[in-house]
Specification:
The structure is a homodimer.
Chain A (H helix, E strand, L loop, with lengths): L14 H9 L5 E2 L2 H6 L15 E4 L3 H14 L3 E4 L16 E4 L6 E5 L4 E4 L5 H9 L3 E2 L12 H7 L6 H4 L6 E8 L4 E5 L11 H5 L7 E9 L1 E2 L5 E7 L2 H13 L6 E6 H11 L9 E7 L5 H15 L4 E4 L3 H19 L4 E3 L2 E2 L5 H15 L2 E7 L4 E7 L5 H20 L15 H23 L15
Parallel strand pairs in A: 2-4, 3-4
Antiparallel strand pairs in A: 1-2, 5-6, 6-10, 7-11, 8-9, 8-10, 12-14, 12-15, 13-14, 13-18, 16-19, 17-19, 18-19
Helix pairs in contact in A: 1-3, 8-10, 8-12, 9-11, 12-13
C-alpha cells in the first residue's frame, strides 16, 4: 500500500478508552497500536492521518449511542468507518479521537419485495446486498468500483456512485430512510418507507454524502429496482482521448441513454496487459464501453446507434460485443485498471466531474498536465456522466515525483472548475479535496455548511475537520 | 373560492413598506388592501391567513436581496409566493409581514440540449417550461395537477409531485442547482450543472421542499429528459375501492412499472358527469388508469400485463384504450375531478402517502371515516406510489359539516401514520399539516429541523411558523 503520514508510535492516552470499556461489552474496545493504526485510514494516498486513542467495534445502535455519548462527555472526536475503501481521507483518524468501526453491523434486516425496499445495517457490503436481493429478482443499482468490499454505511457517507449511475443515479437517489445517532447522542429515524413524502426537511438527503460529519448512520432503508436484463455491450476503439471525448459528446447529442458508458485509456490498457496479458493495448489507445439494458429489442437498437456514434466520431474499430463473455472481459479490464496501476506505484486517484460538452477538453488538459509535470496520468472514467478519474501514478519512494503529482492534482481541480465542473463527482471531499471545495463553494456557501454542522453537531465531535475546516 | 379567516380591514402599518418603496423601482411595492389580501393566501381552505403589510412584485435577484435585507433590518417576516396554487397554506401571509411575489420573474434563461438542463427564474409556470423544452424534444417530468398555473419556484418550495412521479420521480430528483437569497441576505449559488457531484452537503436537496423557510429561490437549474413516446393506456373499472386497491397491489407484485397509475372514484366520476356529462359514472364505481411510455413494443406489453392484473383483481371491465383520444378523455376526467367537486362546495384536499401494500386498507378506512363523520370523501390518487388525495367536500356555509370534515381530516392522518405512511406525499406541510408533522417526526427530529432553521435563517424572518412551530 501507499505511503502514509504516520507520525508516532508512542502509546495513546487511555481516558476515553477506559470509559468506553466500562460501558461496552468485552472485546468491543481495541487499543492495540497496530490494530488502531491499521483502522485509522482509508485508501487515499498522502492524506494526513491522526493518532486515534481507540477503536470500537460496535455491534448495535445502542452501542453506537453509548460511544457517541461518551465522546460528547469527554469532548473526544469520533470517526465512523466501514471497510476503509474511501479515496479522499474521509475516514482517516482524527488526533486523539476514537474510531468507530461499523463493519460488524452487517445484517440485512429486511427485504420487502412488494414495496421494493431493503433495510440494512451500515456494515453490509454493497455486493452482499446485491446478491441478497438478486435472489428475489431485485436490484440495488449504485455500483462503486469498491462494491466487493465497501459497506453501505460508507456508500451513504460518500454518496457513492459507480458505473450504472449514468442511467440509474447515485446512492442518494436510493436512500429512503435512515436511523442515525445524532450529534447530541439521540437515536432518530429520518425519512420514510413510502415512495413519496415531503414531511419536513430532507434530512436524509443531507446525511447522505455528509461523510459522517452530521450523524452516525446505524440503519439504512434503500429503494430497490427490478433486476434488469444483462444487456448488450457496444465497444469503440479510438486513437486518442480527444476523439473518445468527441464520441461521448455525440452519444449525448443523439439522446442515447446507456446503462454504462466507460472510458479506459492506453496507460490502463498497458498496465492491465502487463499484469493479465489480455492483449488490449495492442488494439486500441482508448476504449469506450457502453452497455444497454433496456427491455426487448430496445437494448440492441441502443447498442447499434452507439456503434454508429463511435464510428461517426472516428473510431478505429467499433461494434457490439459478439458474446456476453467478451463484454464481461472488457468490463473486467476496466475494473482491473486501478489495481494494475497500483502495481506500478502509489496511485493518487482524482475524481472530477465536468459537463458532457467539456469532456474532450478536460481529457486534453489532463494530458497536457501530465506532460507539464512529467508524471504518468492514466484515465478511467464514468465518461457518460462526465465523471473522470485521472490516476496519478508515481514510483514508490520518488519524493520529487510526488511533489509534481500534487501540483498536477491541483491543476486538474482548477481545470475542472474552469470548465464548469465540480472537484468531486463521487469520492467525496474528505481531506484531499478540502482546498478544492473551498474554491468551488466560496465563503458564503461554506459558512452555510458550517452553520448546518454547528446546528446538528454542536459539540463538533463528529469527524471534525473533514469536508471543510472547523468553524 | 373557499371561506378564509380574514380578520380585519384596518389599514396595515407602513414602516417596512416605506423602506421598500425607497429602495425599489416604482411600482414594485403594493399596499392596496384588496390586492394584498388577494395575494395573501394559497388554495388551502381553512388555513389561517395573517395580515400582510405589503406585497413586493420582484423582478430580479437584486430586488429579492433588497427585500430580504430590508426585512432583516426591520425584523419583518417575509413570505415568498408564486401562483398561490398551494394546498397546505404554505404561502399564506404572516401577520405584519411582507409578501414577496415572484411570478414576475418568469424567464426561461437557458436550455442546454447537450447537457439536458434548463435554467429558469422561479416565476416560470411549469407547463410553460414543458412547452418550451418540448419544442427541442426534451421533457421536464414533474407534473403536478397545478402545472398549467403553478410556478417552478412553488414546485421547488413544496417538492411537487404529480402523475408521472411513479416512474420519473418528483421535483427534487430534477433540481441540480439553485440560486438562493439566504436568511442572512446573501446571494449564493448551490449545487452544480454536472450530472454527478458530491462537493459538500446537499443544500439543494435541503432547500427543495423547505417551503421557503430556509431561503428565497431566485433561479433554478433542472435536469431534463428526452421526451418520451405518447404511450399506451390501460383502463380498469372496479366495483369498489377495495378491489382497485388489490389491483394496485397486484401490479406492484408483478413488477410493472407504469409511467402513471391513477385512481378516480365514484364521487369524482359523478361530479365530472354532472358537470361535463362524460357518462363515466354509469359504467364504473372506481376507475384505474395506467399509462406505459416505454420504447417500442415494451409499452404495449406493459399495458397488456396491466390489463391482466386488473382482470385478475376482479375488474368489471378492463382493456387497453382503443385510441389516444379515449385515453386523453379518461385522463381529462381525472384532472377535472377536483374542479368538478369544488362546484359542490369547499373541498379540503388531503394528501397522505402509504406503502403500496396498505393502499386497499387505507382506502377502506377513508370510506369508514366518511361514514363515521357523515361527510362526502371523494378519492383521486396517484395510487401507483400510494399517494392518496381524499377530497373532503362540504356544503358552503355548513359550519357543522366543516367541524366534522376537520375531524375526518385528523382521522385520515392518524390512519396513514398507523399504516406506515406519511402525512404529506407531495403538497407540503404548510399550516394544515403542522400537527401531523409533529406526530410523524417526534420531538428529536423536530428539534433537528429547528436547529437547521436557526442555522440558515438566524433572524427567523423566512416564512416563520410554516412546516413547524417557532423555536
Amino acid at each position: 500500500m501507499a505511503e502514509r503520514n504516520f507520525v508516532s508510535t508512542t502509546p495513546p492516552a487511555v481516558g476515553i478508552a477506559e470509559v468506553l470499556r466500562r460501558r461496552l461489552p468485552t472485546g468491543r474496545v481495541v487499543t492495540d497500536p497496530d490494530i488502531v493504526a491499521g483502522l485509522s485510514h482509508d485508501q487515499a494516498v498522502w492524506a494526513p492521518v491522526g493518532r486515534a486513542v481507540a477503536v470500537v467495534r460496535a455491534k448495535s445502535t445502542d452501542e453506537v449511542r453509548t460511544v457517541v455519548r461518551a465522546c460528547l462527555e469527554q469532548g473526544v472526536p469520533l470517526v465512523a468507518r466501514g471497510a476503509g475503501t474511501g479515496l479522499s481521507g474521509g475516514a482517516n483518524a482524527v488526533e486523539g479521537g476514537v474510531i468507530l468501526a461499523l463493519d460488524g453491523m452487517d445484517r440485512v434486516l429486511e427485504v420487502d419485495q412488494l414495496e421494493r425496499l431493503a433495510v440494512v445495517q451500515p456494515g453490509v457490503v454493497n455486493d452482499d446486498l446485491r446478491a441478497h436481493v438478486a435472489a428475489l429478482g431485485l436490484w440495488y443499482p449504485p455500483d462503486p468500483a469498491s462494491s466487493p468490499w465497501s459497506t453501505m454505511g460508507g456508500n451513504v457517507a460518500t454518496n457513492a456512485g459507480g458505473v450504472c449511475c449514468v442511467k440509474y443515479g447515485v446512492t442518494r437517489d436510493y436512500v429512503l430512510g435512515l436511523e442515525v445517532v445524532t450529534g447530541t447522542g439521540e437515536v432518530v429515524r429520518l425519512g420514510r418507507r413510502t415512495s413519496k413524502g415531503v414531511a419536513g426537511y430532507d434530512l436524509v438527503g443531507l446525511m447522505v454524502g455528509a461523510e459522517g460529519t452530521l450523524g452516525v448512520v446505524t440503519e439504512i432503508t434503500v429503494r430497490l429496482r427490478r433486476l434488469p436484463p444483462v444487456g448488450v455491450t457496444a465497444v469503440g476503439y479510438f486513437d486518442s482521448v480527444g476523439q473518445a471525448g468527441d464520441a461521448v459528446r455525440a452519444t449525448a447529442a443523439a439522446g442515447l441513454r446507456p446503462a454504462a458508458l466507460e472510458l479506459v485509456d492506453r496507460h490502463c490498457l498497458r498496465a492491465v496487459d502487463a499484469w493479465k496479458n489480455m492483449g488490449l493495448s495492442a488494439e486500441a489507445d482508448v476504449v469506450l464501453l457502453a452497455r444497454f439494458d433496456d427491455d426487448g429489442r430496445a437494448a440492441e437498437e441502443g447498442a447499434r446507434r452507439m456503434v454508429d456514434c463511435f464510428r461517426g466520431a472516428g473510431s478505429t474499430w467499433a461494434d457490439r460485443s459478439e458474446t456476453e463473455e467478451e463484454a464481461k472481459m472488457l468490463f473486467a479490464a476496466r475494473r482491473l485498471a486501478f489495481p494494475a496501476l497500483e502495481r506500478l506505484g502509489p496511485v493518487l486517484t482524482e475524481d472530477v466531474c465536468v459537463p458532457i460538452g467539456a469532456v474532450a477538453e478536460m481529457l486534453a488538459r489532463i494530458d497536457r498536465t501530465a506532460e507539464r509535470h512529467r508524471i504518468t496520468i492514466a484515465n478511467i472514467a464514468h465518461v457518460g456522466d462526465g465523471n473522470l478519474h485521472p490516476l496519478l501514478v508515481t514510483e514508490r519512494g520518488d519524493a520529487a515525483a510526488q511533489v509534481r503529482a500534487r501540483a498536477a492534482f491541483d491543476d486538474i481541480i482548477a481545470d475542472a472548475l474552469e470548465l464548469g465542473g465540480t472537484v468531486t463527482g463521487e469520492h467525496g471531499v474528505g481531506l484531499l479535496k478540502r482546498p478544492g471545495l473551498t474554491r468551488e463553494l466560496g465563503p458564503a456557501v461554506l459558512e452555510m455548511h458550517r452553520a448546518v454542522k454547528r446546528a446538528l453537531d454542536p459539540a463538533g465531535i463528529l469527524n471534525p475537520g473533514k469536508v471543510f475546516g472547523q468553524a
